[in-house]
Amino acid sequence: MRSPEIDSIPVEHAERDRRRRRAVDCRWAFLWILALSAAVSAWAQDANSNQARSLSAEQIVDKLQQHDQVQLANLEHYQSVRHYAVEYHGFFKSIDAGMEVLFTYDASAGKNFQIISQTGSKMLCEKVLQRALESEKEASQLTKGNTALTRQNYEVRLIGTDMVGGRPAFILDVHPRSPSKFLYEGRVWVDASEFALAKMEVQPAKNPSFWISKTVIHHSNAKSGAFWLPMQNRSETKVRVGGTAIMTIDYGTYQVASRSQPSKPIAQDIR
């Protein structure tokens, strides 16, 4: 007569075998998912590479212009509280200033700037920060076609691809066809999926003042809802008489309204 313990051994072995097979199946499934993810990633990178080879710089600029036209047609209103800051480091001293500005864009009225507060050097606030606001408003009042990144305004060359904010982008080398303080030269990054301007590393095409020897601008845009809007700007200016001025703009959090969806006013949140 066989004991119950002996009868249970095959059953225990079978259960252990089933658990072992399930563990192996899970490991294989996990490895398969990893391999599939890697393949999808490689495919996406290869697809982007193929697109980069198939599109010319001129075609990318045309698509950028189309994107901007569609956005302009659909963007009704947006606003944010911007923070402007400037530092000047000279031979003998350093001074700084800051400014909080309520910025408002309306499709019918254009751009508007309301200074909320100022700190630091009064001279820097008046001569640098307020002039920066005036220049932006002046540029916005020009015909958009005169300042936009188009083939009419710029010579462009595709020099590669990159990742900006985790998104693939084309890198273009751009040079204005005529000098203007509202145009620039350098490199721009164009989002490869939506053909929006993602990043810029440029300098003005025309020196705005004799007292300035060189200005380098780093600017980034990002998506806010369905729209691409400015996020950060940093400009470093070398002054001929000595010293360096660094101005930064943090564009803040946007309240955006499209043609079909209104936005909540931000002014009521200002203290």
Task: Briefly summarize what is shown.
34% of the residues lie in helices and 42% in strands. With 271 residues, the protein is α+β, with helices and mostly antiparallel strands.
Give the topology.
Elements: H1 4-54, H2 57-74, E1 75-89, E2 94-106, E3 110-120, H3 122-141, H4 144-147, E4 154-164, E5 167-176, E6 184-191, E7 197-204, E8 212-224, E9 227-239, E10 244-250, E11 255-258
Antiparallel strand pairs: 1-2, 1-10, 1-11, 2-3, 4-5, 5-6, 6-7, 7-8, 8-9, 9-10
Describe this structure in words.
Helix content is 34%, strand content 42%. With 271 residues, it is an alpha+beta fold. The chain has two domains: 1-54; 56-269, outer membrane lipoprotein receptor (LolB), chain A (Clam). Strands 1, 2, 3, 4, 5, 6, 7, 8, 9, 10 and 11 form an eleven-stranded antiparallel β-sheet that branches. A hairpin with a 7-residue loop joins β7 and β8. It is globular and about 80 Å long. Residues 26-49 and 265-271 have low confidence and may be disordered.
